[in-house]
Amino acid sequence: MRYIRTSAYRSNRHTSLPATLTAISAILLAGPASAEVYQSAKADFRLVTVAEGLEHPWSIAFLPDGSQLVTERSGRIRLITDGELAASPVANAPEAAAQGQGGMLDILLHPEFGQNNILFVSYAHRNREGLTTRVDRAQYRDGALHDRKTIFEAEPRSSNGRHFAGRMVIPGDGYLYVAVGDRGDMDRAQDFGDDAAAVHRITIDGKVPDSNPFVDRDDARPTLFTKGNRNIQGMTLHPDTGAVWSHEHGPRGGDEINIIEAGVNYGWPKITYGIDYSGARITDKTEMEGMAQPLHYWDPSIAPSGMAFYTGDAFPQWQGDLFVGALRSQKLVRLTIDDEEVQGEEDLLTGYGERLRDVRMGPDGVLWLLTDSANGKVVQLVPAE
Ligand SMILES: [Ca+2]
Asked: Fold for domain 53-296?
């Protein structure tokens, strides 16, 4: 079937469609997919809304039985089965502090979830001493978390409700990597006695691996794996190298992509691109001995969130491309990568009008997106034809 290829069609979508296009879109509507075709340099695609009515969905995990678990920043974990959002949230979820940018954040299945049912949830947690980023491990069975325990908690806490980070991955070494932001206080970012502005590496029981880069330093927190990361909102594994790729929110004009490596200082706020959102200069330095350069930075900022390498069969043209969601600039960015170099960048979904919170490679070979709103959606990105 031929797809629709006019920009007029796109700009008309909020008004009335010309009769001929309406007729064509009726034919295209074979399922719940939007009839709208989005064009891109290498592939045209449509969106399929899997579920909606989620409160600021933040992260999605794909269960082996084909269902999905989705966190809502408001504090719940929801189950979606065959496009049906279960009315009851997952039971025994941790109590997340939905305050500022905080709430229920990332959800990650153990690589052997099919055998052990173990998953990890990160969230903002509040007690009398303030707020922090925390990780619980639990077993998921029958719509509930079982044997849930806290395995990581960043210190110290503060009253600041910003920059919790929270993204997690488990690369080939089998350790859990969890990102913690600078908590809205840049002075914490280069203090190695502070858990803020870092990627931490722990065992899945919450212990400190002996091989962590700063374990022998008295002035450093032992779980630190990196330092100087302002607010990581995307982490994913490279499909070939297994390396941990991340992006972080920088200041105005300084969002970055980095590869996370042991003991590396990513510089914030000693070096950075961009300026403070107030307009003030943070530093005049963009590089310094002993601090890593980003692979890529965005000026103007896009407020990236969620990231995934495309590895599916539905879009052979996109194999190996890196997809990044954007909150503020409401788009999906496709980056072409050669080894560890960003070679090209294309903006997708600029007409969709949604903040994108998460971008994942689904087990079904297509990208899945979460939109960030009070009526958040789970969306699949499928070929146009
Ligand atoms: Ca940096």
From this structure: Neuraminidase (2.120.10)
